[in-house]
Amino acid sequence: MPTLWLVVSLLVLSAAGFVFGRQRAMSSAEGNAKELHSLPSYYGHNVAFTTLLPALGALAIWLLVQPMFIESRISQLIPEELAPDRQTLGLVMSDVGRVAEGLDVAIAKGALSADEAKSLRTELTDVRARLGEVGVALGADVRPEVLEAAQQYRVMSKTGNVLMAVFVAVLALGGFSWSYMQTHKDFRARNVVEKGILSLLILAASLAILTTIGIVLSMFFETINFFKLHNAADFFFGRTWAPNFRGDSELSILPLLWGTLYVSVIALLVAVPVGLFAAVYLSEYANNTVRAFAKPLLEILAGIPTIVYGLFALLTVGPLLVGTFGKGGFLGVEWMAGATSVLTAGVVMGIMLIPFVSSLSDDIINAVPQAMRDGSLGLGATRSETIRQVVLPAALPGIVGAILLAASRAIGETMIVVMGAGAIAKFSGNPLDSMTTITTRIVSQLTGDTDFASPETLVAFALGLSLFVLTLGLNVLALYIVRKYREQYE
Amino acid sequence: MNDMQFTDRAVDQKETKIAAHGVNVHYGEAHAIKDVNVEIEDKTVTAFIGPSGCGKSTFLRCLNRMNDTIDICNVTGNILLDGEDIYDKRVDPVQLRAKVGMVFQKPNPFPKTIYDNVAYGPRIHGLAKNKADMDEIVEKALRRGAIWDEVKDRLDKPGTGLSGGQQQRLCIARAVATEPEVLLMDEPCSALDPIATAQVEELIDELRTQYSVVIVTHSMQQAARVSQKTAFFHLGTLVEFGHTGQIFTNPEDPRTESYITGRIG
Amino acid sequence: MSDTSKTSLLALTPRTKQRNAAEKRFRAYGIAAIAVGLMMLMVLVTNIFSRGTGAFQQTFMTVNVELLESKLDKKGNRDLDDIKKVTTFGYNPLIRDAVVAKVEELGIQTDLKAKDLGGILSRNAVGQLREFVIANPDRIGETIEFRFLAQSRVDGYLKGRVHRASIGNDKSISPEQLDLVDQLVDAGVIVKTFNIDFITGADASDQRPEAAGIGVAMLGSLSMMFVVLGLALPIGVAASIYLEEFAPKNRLTDIIEVNISNLAAVPSIVFGILGLAVFINYLHLPTSAPLVGGLVLTLMTLPTIIISTRAALKAVPPSIRDAALGVGASKMQAVFHHVLPLAAPGILTGTIIGLAQALGETAPLLLIGMVGFIASNAPETLADGLLAPNSAMPAQIYEWAKRADPAFYERAWGGIIILLVFLVSMNTLAVILRRRFERRW
Q1: What is the CATH number of the domain that holds B250?
Q2: Reported ipTM
Q3: Shortest CB distance from C26 goes to which of A190, A305, A384?
């Protein structure tokens, strides 16, 4: 919370800056606003921004860098024999974090005084029990090195926070006084303020790039860690997905990829014919009334959250399929064991993708020039002949692009497969079998009790990165095809 | 007017191919064609001229029911092709359009090969018995379209790769491939350069020997050069219809004269 | 001339008939496709409503509880600390006795033991009673009328979910208890009525589906939406203004543009991984906190907002900018004083649609721990609302769908109805805004 107070005081100071800056400008012009180079409020804004922005920026960077810095310093405190490799070091470091947090809680609750926390010794006190009293559960007894590191950690964080507050305050006050001194009727306040705003705009625009970098880096480093612990060949070329806690997990992406692609193919088998025919009908046959009515209704399907489709798969479509193909079912066969299956997830995902395919195809079909249709109709072709033999071939590249976009959607979809596809990783051709997908495994490996030093958890990042690369590739390809297609008719 | 030349053509009476009586066209509220009567002869080039928006293209599109594709368009009156009402309920526009072909303002070859462009019509109408038959039809059509020599070596290349004038002649070849009796041309040269225009005009004159050709043009010189009969449209009405030579040299209606001398248009 | 010239136009050739039949078939495929799409929508909607409306009703039983001093306050000094020492366990007999008394009062003959009689009430009843006593210690000793939740099997029986035939192995309910329930319903003691607690209440443990509500998760969603609105709108608008109005056409801006359109298509789960790795593992923000959820959803919504804002800015004609520049405004003034206000309705519409998307998003929330957590208390302060662990509506629905007891499914569907009500209102608002302020230049 001290950070919050720091931000609040920065805001207050900056508001004061606005008032004082404006006043000073006005008094330098002897109360006559016409004498000023810029409007009076620009002088206020100048002071306010110069006070606030550098300080806020410094604060943000400090908050980002400090944990990294402290972490690396603390990890040097851990003796080698306690953490021979990176994996155990990670475990020890998370212990340190937990103990430090526990000490904080204990002080906050008054179970320990600040001095007691500093002087705590494992030889004298059962730290685990003391922390347990205040509700901080530790997995094992605290080792002296860990406790020392945790205490050191607290000290460093505290010093860091104080230093940060001082630094930010100095920066803010410096900015305040510097810009306040600068304020004079001939000072070009507007130009300065506008430059400041422009740099803020640029900052906002580059956030998109930062996000992408963040996505790639956050997965990249953990993926490298994963490959240090687990054989890359097994990940890419193995045949089995079988995580366990004995340390000999088989973690291959291939069975998951198979499940993912199988579900996606079924989804596309549902969505593409229906979506494409719907688009053809809406753009080539339907009159305005039908279009105005059917198009928005179909698009509702695209606005429904995926959790709804997931529930629909789990509780409606799945049981329905079991009631047909399952034991004691409608067909009297016993092909399906449980409600989750490739078919369940695929069909429901197909429904979700119908409007996606149809509205993309609709746009693309409409981009085919009317002259093509006229040429064909003028030769005595029927409408369907025109559509099948002229319009659709002409629109084919665009439609392929649309289908690729839909495929990328299907591959990255999570909730429907989490709830509808099942959890068994295998290569099977039977659509009524329960199978699992990349996204499903990412969710299951990263939820619940996770240990970020074990390959079973880290594999999720490798899976995420593979998923990202796969969908990104499809998207880039699809957007390229669609853009080429559009240029052709422009 | 001096640079206009009238080819001395036989203007003897030929049999009527299309007869339109009391044709009215409405686009929603707008009255686009007002009570037009006209008789179009076989083996003749008939030109429709008039200022833009006068309804000449609209009327042309009535002749093969291309207006059917526009929802709000409503055609009344009757148009007879060889004595049969083409707006009769029993008439299928698809069959009609096989008899009354159309060439459009902008060359619109399909994004297919040159061969497939020409073979498209015969294929949908089932005119060829086998591949050899189709090859023959395509060659004949391309020869009639006066483009065979230019494309015979690249029949499998896309039609969109040709020049504008070649594309338009390809479209004409495509239209004649279905063996129509009437050929409608909606400003076929407006998107072409002068040389390509001259080639197409020459082609139109040749086509006259086998088809009844109706051409919409906003170029009076072109009408004078290629047509035997000319119809002048103004504000949706047919003002004057007669032999081309007579319309251009001795118009009866003052509006026709104003247009020809360049006062309206 | 070929054969066609000989045929009359008035007679259809066999080939034309064939072709027209093909035309009709093709048309029918189109109609069928649309019908399939619309039917799916209908099935989905009817399914949601037929299975979800039950969640808005709940079965209650009215009994008179005697707050025995001997059980609740043995020392009789009304000391709150002493009263608090009585756990919910100590309240069980009171409730059991109350049900027994009610049954006797109505003169219903039953062979059931007192324990089974008490069993038709929810386990939630003891908690409810204890809370009341702690809030009103002075009323110990009185007999007070309470309306308690019936247990979920009784509720299911009244809603048609539980039948005598289906409870063979069910330890929670017996046919005799159902007989009793029938009689109590006839006596008007057990009633099924509208249940506001589902909308306002908190989630309950998986033993008490009848007490679970979505209210707290709704607050969680609300907090996240505030974060998204507060961050994504200004950042998105600023980025769009730069890209649309100021950015020079160069490689860097090209990269940014391609980047944004690709970000819009990145699977949402990937944003969840980003959130987990950066906000939780690196920045040590609290797990399950709506603040983190909001940050992740902000990053996810940004591309949508940027794309629609840019479209809105593009729709403002250049003549407006020229006019402002012409009277001596700086470029910045022209944009902020003229272009931005004119584009505001479009920006707002895009933002609402982006928020609606974020509101329904589930996958990234799974990874930052907003699932598997029982949101049992409403946050008390603003900071709590952002930082204390909470769930969110779609995450809560997923949580219910995962539980074993089918009574929770009804709640999941009911939760979806509430979620959809929000989404429909947001989208309607967007449509109204667009209609109302749409300007054609």
Answers
A1: 3.40.50.300
A2: 0.90
A3: A384
